[in-house]
Design goal:
Length: about 375
């Protein structure tokens, strides 16, 4: 399963280009319509949702006793947290007579109660109470997705085979457990393409200049594929008024749904990324930024927060530029490449392992 580390020395020189890039100009106008082609026409490989740990919500957006509605993986889901503080992600339709439990459902202790006839389900989705009967119905079971809480995010495990237990784990990060870092600065987008297209763009440093107009392009040092994990290491010279300052950008991904990027240099920043399919056409992309506090005085905390807000604003602008590509691109199965493009095909071989056919019909495909 382990691929050898790919080494690159791609200190790429790109022709200078005055003013804004073409996509920056188009994004600022905001007039581009997405393609009328369907996702299956654009991405023929996308016939199953990849199995993965997926972002459900931020931990602080789901308090004990709360019930929330979500649509991921072409399914209607209910997110809830019991009084025991355990978060749950379940299919939303009650097996009794089909109500969407996320709309009006409530938490009683560690159980979820359907709003229609008040049948009660435990954390595994099993019916444990029918309030007007002495019996429970053992057939009445909601699919419950394995759920963990890591680094301030609620994540759930999806596999087309509901019996398939999680195949890897998501670690805790040291940055989450100290007060040296800010709270999350949160940003999210709905992107009209599958996860794989977003992830393929990750090591595509050339586009930082050609799409986003970046002054410098990072140098990709290595990209390692090890089972379900991929790790990208790179160095970059950040432009500052005092001249170029050396820094690093290092990214680690655990399967298709979750990654962390660490920026070191001028101001240390991390962001956790989640990509969760909403349906076959759209993917939810979230990024939670944390910035290493410049100090603990009120003034330095305010300055750190301004940096965070500026980073999120810049990312939003970049996403508008990227989205013109993502909303309209197709996948070229045999792309025309040059060595400086980086390891596109190695990435695709790694990505292939996450697709297992299984429940295309129940997922509405
Ligand atoms: S539909 Fe849920 S209790 Fe009847
Ligand atoms: Fe981009």
């Amino acid at each position: 399963m382990t691929e050898p580390t790919k080494q690159f020395s791609a200190a790429v020189k790109i022709r200078e280009f005055p003013g804004q890039t073409p996509l920056q100009i188009m994004a600022a106008k905001g007039e581009t319509e997405p393609t009328p082609l369907s996702s299956l026409e654009r991405f023929p490989y996308y016939t199953a949702f990849p199995f993965a740990w997926y972002y459900a919500c931020y931990s602080d957006d789901l308090l004990p006793g709360e019930v929330r509605q979500a649509r991921y993986l072409a399914r209607d889901l209910v997110l809830w947290r019991g009084q025991d503080n355990h978060p749950h992600v379940m299919d939303a339709y009650c097996p009794h007579l089909g109500a969407n439990i996320a709309l009006g459902g409530r938490v009683e202790g560690d159980n979820l109660v359907c709003p229609y006839h008040w049948w009660e389900y435990d954390g595994d989705g099993q019916n444990v109470k029918v309030p007007y009967s002495n019996k429970v119905n053992r057939k009445a079971k909601l699919r419950s997705y394995p759920t963990v809480e890591r680094n301030g995010l609620v994540l759930f495990w999806y596999h087309p085979d509901p019996a398939c237990k999680p195949l890897w784990e998501i670690p805790d990060f040291p940055e989450y457990f100290t007060d040296e870092w800010t709270e999350f600065h949160k940003a999210e987008w709905k992107v009209r393409c599958p996860w794989q297209e977003l992830a393929e763009n990750g090591p595509d440093y050339i586009h930082l200049k050609t799409v986003h107009g970046a002054a410098t392009v990072p140098e990709l040092e290595s990209l390692t594929y090890d089972g379900y994990k991929s790790s990208l290491r790179s160095k970059v010279d950040f432009d500052t008024p005092r001249g170029p300052t050396p820094g690093r950008i290092d990214t680690d991904s655990w399967g298709p749904g979750f990654s962390i990027a660490r920026f070191a240099g001028i101001i240390d920043t991390i962001f956790m990324s989640g990509t969760t399919p909403i349906d076959w056409e759209y993917t939810l992309s979230i990024k939670g930024y944390k910035i290493r506090k410049l100090g603990h005085t009120e003034e330095l905390l305010a300055k750190t927060n301004r940096v965070g807000q500026a980073l999120v604003a810049d990312l939003r602008k970049q996403m508008l530029e990227d989205n013109i590509i993502f909303d309209n691109k197709i996948q070229i199965a045999s792309p025309a490449l040059v060595p400086e493009d980086g390891p596109i095909m190695a990435f695709r071989r790694w990505a292939e392992q996450f697709y297992a056919d299984g429940d295309l019909v129940s997922a509405g495909r």
